[in-house]
Amino acid sequence: MGGQSGYSFLDWMGDSGFRFGRGSSRMFVVCIVTIPNYEGFRASLKELKLGLGLKTEYHFHYAHIPITMRESFLNSLPGVDFHAAALVVDKLELPRSYHLKESSFICRFVSEVMAVSNPSAFQAKRLLVDSPKKDTELIRQMRVAVSETLRTRKLLPTPIIRGEPAARWDGLQLADMLAGTLGDQYPNQAAILPNLVDKLEIHEHL
What we know:
By secondary structure, the protein is an alpha/beta fold. 36% of the residues lie in helices and 20% in strands. A six-stranded mixed beta sheet has the order 5-4-1-2-3-6, sandwiched between helices. The longest helix has 16 residues, at 137-152. 34% of the residues are buried.
């Protein structure tokens, strides 16, 4: 892939379950982000934390922070240079053929978002995935799925994929916050993020 940056970041909101009403999420959202000036983004996020009276090691996690904190984070993004793509899936609309093992379910939609999105969202030498371990069954399966998808699109070389904890990588926190917002606000997600229209492309699974 031409013009690769250092890192892309991948995270998702939701789960692979279909027991609605028993804890399974209705929505599943995959988000992938590339940040050309990563140090500039980190500096911007550090400034935001200081302004909110937070410690510099504070971890933005959509599901675990108050609405006001989410809004402050999202309002800081128009000035940040990043390219992101997200796939929004309404699991209520999925046929039984999508009732898959968790790793297969996630990889199915990671492949889809990379198949339909502008390569600027994932043109990087390394793709980091939110995970407590660098190498898991999911990560290994994702390497195969991503490689097949990008080879089909003739977008080579494929990125090096490894797991990293989001607490250590601000880029993973950005992917998490975008995915959480899109899933939580469905079907009005475009209205929630009007200032990011030139940075974030949103696809719906059909």
